[in-house]
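Form 7-S
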Amino acid sequence: MMFSHFLRRSFLGATLGLGCGLVAAPAAQAQKYRTAAGLRVGGGQYGITVQQKILDKTTLEGLGLVSSREVSATLLAERHFGILGPSLNYYFGAGGHVGNHKDNGAFGGIDALAGIEYKVALTPFVLSVDFKPTVEFGAEDWTRFPTAVSVRYILVKEKNTGIFNGMFGGDKDKDKKKKSKSKSKSKSGGGLFDF
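Output:
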């Protein structure tokens, strides 16, 4: 009894610490899309997943999951980190869920998340594998440790995600061209012999 109470408190502390770390973590190049939606399978459940980029390297993910005896909805905040560029990422996150179990009624809980995702080259698909431990309130099991696989279709691409963007000046060159055009327009006096 004492050991399970210790585990529960440790898990809650780790989840809260992870959630706070999402905000303080240093930024890295990650993610080649803004919005993606698809299917998720694992842990005896299947359903839909929708990811929306809300800040640089940060997404909100909504999950609608069903199994033979329950239905649940989850909302997660995730922080993405690039591995060898923006196509391969690892991510951490935290959030909460609510649901209804056929035998036990309504339940809720908090979730942690760790995973890896890959944007498949030359296609609009993202593949991911993750581990999503949960602490349950109002359910028979007070913890779950499922893993899952998701396949998402990119609905809205991230702009300027080419392999050479950011290298050799990238957007800075565009800004310089715009400034030089606006300077040349402002210098022209409109006179007959102004060149």
